[in-house]
Amino acid sequence: MMNAFDQPQTVLVLGGRSDIAHAIVRELSSASLTTVVLAHRGGDDVAIDGLPDGASVVSVPFDATDHASHASFIEGIAKEYGDLDIVIQAFGQLGGETVNTDPTAASDLVDVNVTGAVSSGLAVAAQLRAQGHGVLVVLSSVAGVRTRPSNFVYGATKAGQDAFATGLGHSMVGSGARVMTVRPGFVRSAMTDGLDEAPFACDPSDVATAVAAGLRSKKSVVWAPGILRYVFAVLRLVPGFVWRKLDR
Hints:
The protein is an alpha/beta fold. Strands 3-2-1-4-5-6-7 form a 7-stranded parallel sheet, with helices on both faces. The radius of gyration is 18 Å and the shape is globular.
């Protein structure tokens, strides 16, 4: 359970290889942190540097597309490691070069980014409700706020994840648990290595700082960097022909 200073004891990361999630765990770490569970495909050992002495990091196998297993997986983690204070939903894929034209590639991306987010998110929500406390942190993206022609399938999957997360958050009001949706812009990470940077690009540590501040102030939605909230308030309204030109 969170201590008096809202510092977590147990953190579960769904997508345990995520650079952003690792940065968030480091940002949230304190002497109270006892267990970090990194759940990812394969389950081989993954380390996080910069954690306090005594914090245990455990890697376990997790498949975002094995939807039927998610409820029992979350229950098993809680049974073994205790109440879950923070759960970070950090898995996701960009999709390959053919994702905007290949129905199979597109449906595979939806299966991970949307269906996996829904099935695991509902499983986490059930556990947090039963506990009466805890936060599900969902790493969404500004790509889902208004989909770009160049990556519209990926953007559509993030829009689906984002809509699910915000709706789930509303449904949990009064339970003692909550959801915080995080909308980063372009983040310099292993996932985006080799891609051209978009304006307002940031590092995983910048997202982690925004997440920690959002948790302290109990926000339901966090933008990283914060200026993107205002940028997209305008971009949502520009005409389609302008939006297409901006994507070139």
